[in-house]
Amino acid sequence: MAGIGFELRKLLDRGTFWSGARAYAYAGLIGSGPWVLSILGMLLVGILCASIVVPPSLVTQFQTTVTYLVAGSLIASGGLQLVLTRYCADRLFERRPQRVLPALHGTLALLLPLATLAGVGVALWLPEVSGLYLVLALACWVALCAVWMLAVLLSGLKRYRALVALFAAGYGSTVLLAYPFSLLGWGLEGLLAAFLIGQLILLGGLWQVIVRGYPSAHWVGLDWLRQPRFYPSLWLAGTAFNLAVWADKFIFWLAPGTSVEVISVLRSSPVYDVPVFLAYLAIVPGMAIFLVRIETDFVEYYDKYYDAVRGGGSLTHIQTLRDEMILTVRTGLAEIGKWQAIATLLALLAGPASFELLGLDAALLPLFYVQVIGAGLQVMILALINVLYYFDRRHDVALLTVVFFVANVVLTLLSLALGPSFYGYGFAAAALLTVALGLVRLDRCLGRIVFDTFMKQP
């Protein structure tokens, strides 16, 4: 667990205010950089092209199409992302880095044909759109599925800086190409072509980093599918988590009373989408604290504890390191909760001014407030899941993600039935329930960590 942790420790060890500020800013950039760059890229495309694309509604159609493509590709690839990352992590622990690249190519060889077939099936349900639109959308869909696989592998291997730089290059290319393509009058298809080129640039860059970092004489391998190297619980957790994150959005998009038709059968929810987007910007500070605490204090004691176990340390020494590790977990979670609460309060205070500055309807403020709280709780879910993964509690994570998904669906449908005053409460309540359950499961895990460490070995 090196890489970013070492960089953050060097900054924090200096003990000055500015070194600490740099450490947290660095963590915020690499922890939230890819998705912030993605969102900003799409917004810049809309701002630059809104005045020259005729009719202007084509820009909205482009942004809606990309949103569906991103959501669908994350859900489709979410399970395999975790399966691949775990397989590669195990092979690196065995000092067999040459197995990483074949596993990646093997995963893509399985995922991309299935994604293509699924994309063709969905395309048949999109009437009243051009054939070129369907071809470009299908190509973007397949490219995104591949991008997520490579990106999560680099993230799991702690190549954060390369990941942020490549996302900046990919989405920057989309922004730079969208404007001239719009001037040429290529409309919606031109915007999709610019997005596809940006994704291919991002995909090529990600692939090159992995090939250079993990060279191998073999190009394709499928041994990650064999037992005991394939973990169904990881596939379930990855799929359920992405379904949980997007469930409330899809419900509001599909409900006739809260959505509008954008292109063919694709719909969006103006009343829900804008507050949700603004609320997610408030989690950047929480993500920074999460990354700093997990990658410095916790990982340090985590490594010491398991090094003592593997190195034949005395039981007293192992129990002392266990206590220190548990303390860092609890302190880290408390820090994440505290600073995310501060960020939430600041977002709530800045809400009215922000809405006025952006020209948004003040009636959406209550929904924004609820979504800010829900997004902050999602940061806690991520932190809990991350710590549970460190202790290989795969079934606990699968349970949490399934509960998150089911609760979000049920409670969001209930909020729709109760009326506008309850919009957003479904997601926030589902996140709160998941956090509570996660804390219980983590506490149980920490209470028997020494027993599980020894008794669950082969």
Model description:
This is Exopolysaccharide Exporter (EPS-E). It holds the Pfam family PelG. InterPro entries: PelG. Keywords: Membrane, Transmembrane, Transmembrane helix. The chain crosses the membrane at residues 24-54, 66-89, 101-126, 132-153, 160-179, 191-214, 234-254, 274-294, 336-355, 367-390, 397-416, 422-440. The chain has 458 residues and is mainly alpha-helical. It has two domains: 28-230, no CATH class; 231-457, no CATH class. It is built from 15 helices and two strands. It has helices at residues 4-12, 17-49, 57-93, 100-123, 131-156, 160-183, 187-213, 232-254, 270-280, 284-310, 315-358, 365-390, 394-418, 425-447, 449-455, and strands at residues 260-263, 266-268. A two-stranded antiparallel ribbon has the order 1-2. A hairpin with a 2-residue loop joins strand 1 (260-263) and strand 2 (266-268). The longest helix has 44 residues, at 315-358. It is globular.
